[in-house]
Amino acid sequence: MTDLIERAREFATNAHQRIGQRRKYTNQPYHLHLAAVAKLVEEVSDDAEMVAAAWLHDTVEDTPATLDDIEKNFGQSVAELVEELTDISKASDGNRAARKELDRIHLSQASLRAKTVKLADLIDNSKDIRKNDERFARVYLSEMGALLKVLSDGDPILFKRASKLHAKYTEQLTDKDIYDKGPEQLDRDITALKGLDNRNFRRMFVEIFTAKDLAEGLLSFDADSSCEQVKRALKNQRAEVASVRISGTVQGYIRASDLGAGLCADRIKHFTVDQVVNGTATFSDVIHVLTRHDFCFVTVLDNITGVIRRDDINKPMARMWLFGIVTIVEMRLLQLIQERFPDDRWQQEVSDGRMEKAREIQAERQRRNVYCELIDCLQLSDKAQILIQDPESLERLGLESKSVAKKTVKRLESLRNHLAHAQDIVTHDWPQIARLSMWIEDMSRK
To answer: Domain 211-311's class?
Structure first.
């Protein structure tokens, strides 16, 4: 194993372990999937960069690491491969089918090296899904078939193997009487609320909060400006990045960390399509960009004038937005409890100690002439614990198992507590922030 591959293996393994990510169906450590993909690539190629990309192919989508982090640690070539393998669709791009089509088009334009890694990923994923989830397997195999049409110029051995698995699994499922919701309905949403007017919801959580509310002004320099001049200006403004003009038009950007000798033109990085949003873009779209990149650039009247960094999600406007989403999720839990455990039967699912705590809270509120039901005095973890014991509730929440549910609630509580105590949510809770932003966009379309 080369040094590059070993460093990629260690980086990816640690990144996925830090967020506690495990395989959906088997609950095995996530790096076992990465190892399987890397092994398949190694069987057909001795290209160390391809194998490194196989280890890193899910890092940007699933962990706090960005493409800039990949480039800093493994070089531009590996970062480009990972970028080709990373989905570009956003929650606001539509339902699952619409998003998958955008990702398929993106992959169709990828290099042959990236397509080979993707074939290995499809092979390992298809085996796992076919074995453990026949219902979703139908949807996945349909999507796999569409992807194979644009992956035919990847490694011929892996393409043949993937095609055979696709044909085999499709045939196995043909005669099975499995209820198929279809890709659109498989977009489960844990925040769907009955009786909530969708227009009002969209206005509250999608239209009111937009990219321009978070963006900071972007310094701009001509391409023939000296790096030393730009470095001084960025330091004075405590900025990390500036735009670069070529013939009077902004064409790219330059990072303070990249500045050395010479001119801006020597250090310019060009904007990628998925790195730029309109000023009216949703917070969810901004977070999607920041999951992939260190900087999200914002346009006003088609001109790039602002920039948003991950740390800007700590701003009051974003924190208020996230706290509202957490509140909506908690309301959903309460509604499900009342549906599944009518006539206060939920009390049988709560420990004596937690019930006593709830009664103390209720008594204190009543002392202050604040009316509330006993169930309103439960903590978020208490409400979740009631539902975790109920298989139907787990399914309606889109959670595969009790262990997954417990981890999800723990992360949600962490985010809420950090929000409430004005702590850094970006450092501690980025994966949960990304998930919530996706859910809220899905809900706004329902």
So the answer is: alpha beta
